UniProtKB/TrEMBL annotation:
Repeat (TPR) residue spans along the chain: 97-130, 172-205
Protein name (Swiss-Prot/TrEMBL): Tetratricopeptide repeat protein
Keyword Transmembrane: no
Keyword terms, alphabetized: TPR repeat
C-alpha cells in the first residue's frame, strides 16, 4: 500500500513539474513569446504541421490560408484568435512580411507601440508590398512620438509614409498622416500641401478638428 501511495505521490509531483514547464497562453504572444516550448506544445506543433501538410500542396499555401484567417479575426477585433493564426502562419513559413505586420498591429492595439515597431521593422526586411503596411508602421512611430516627444520617431513615420506613397500614390490615409506629421514638426506649408491631397483622394481620412486648426494657420 505504501509503495502504491509513493508511486501516486511521485506521479503527482512529476505531473505538477511538467505542467509548470508548459507556460500557458504563449500562442497569444508573437512567435509564441520566444520561449522554449514543452514537449506537449512541441507535439501539438507537429500534429498541426502534419495536418496542414495533408490539407495543402505546400506549407506556403497553408501559411497564406492562416494569414487570411488571421486578418479576418483581426478585423472582427478578436485579437487573441488573430494572434493564434499569425503564430500558426509563422510556424508554417516565417518568411511573409504580413505575419510580422499582424504581430505589430496586434501589439500596437494592445498599447505597446515600442514593441510593435520591432515587428514592423522585421516586416520591412521582407519588403512589404502593401501601402497600408506603412500606415500601420507610421502610426506606431507617431504614437511613440506622442508618448516621448522625440521628433526622431516622427521623422521615421514620415519616411514610412513616403515609402507607402511609392507603392500607392492614391492612398489618402498616407497624405492625411503626412499632413499631421508635418504639422507636429511645425512645417505648416507641407502640412497644408498634404492635407489638400488627402482631401482630393479620401476626405474621410481627415480629422475635422485637425483641418479646422490647420486652416486657421
Amino acid at each position: 500500500m505504501k509503495t502504491k501511495l509513493s508511486s501516486i505521490l511521485f506521479l503527482m509531483i512529476f505531473n505538477s513539474a511538467y505542467t509548470q514547464n508548459c507556460l500557458e497562453k504563449i500562442n497569444i504572444l508573437p512567435m509564441y513569446g520566444g520561449v522554449k516550448k514543452c514537449k506537449e506544445q512541441l507535439d501539438s506543433d507537429k500534429e498541426f504541421l502534419k495536418e496542414m501538410d495533408k490539407l495543402f500542396p505546400n506549407r506556403q499555401k497553408a501559411m497564406q490560408e492562416r494569414i487570411k484567417s488571421a486578418w479576418k479575426y483581426f478585423y472582427e477585433n478578436d485579437l487573441d484568435t488573430a494572434m493564434k493564426r499569425f503564430n500558426q502562419a509563422w510556424l508554417l513559413d516565417p518568411k511573409s512580411y504580413e505575419i510580422y505586420w499582424g504581430f505589430g498591429n496586434i501589439v500596437a492595439m494592445k498599447g505597446n507601440p515600442k514593441q510593435a515597431v520591432k515587428y514592423f521593422d522585421d516586416a520591412k526586411k521582407l519588403i512589404p508590398s502593401n501601402s497600408d503596411f506603412y500606415v500601420s508602421s507610421a502610426l506606431a512611430y507617431s504614437q511613440m512620438f506622442l508618448n516621448e516627444k522625440n521628433s526622431s520617431f516622427l521623422k521615421i513615420a514620415i519616411k514610412d509614409l513616403e515609402a507607402g506613397l511609392k507603392l500607392n500614390p492614391k492612398n489618402g490615409k498616407l497624405y492625411s498622416m503626412l499632413s499631421t506629421s508635418y504639422f507636429y514638426l511645425n512645417n505648416i506649408k507641407e502640412a497644408k500641401k498634404y492635407l489638400k491631397e488627402a482631401e482630393k483622394l479620401e476626405p474621410s481620412s481627415i480629422n475635422p478638428e485637425f483641418k479646422k486648426i490647420l486652416d486657421s494657420k
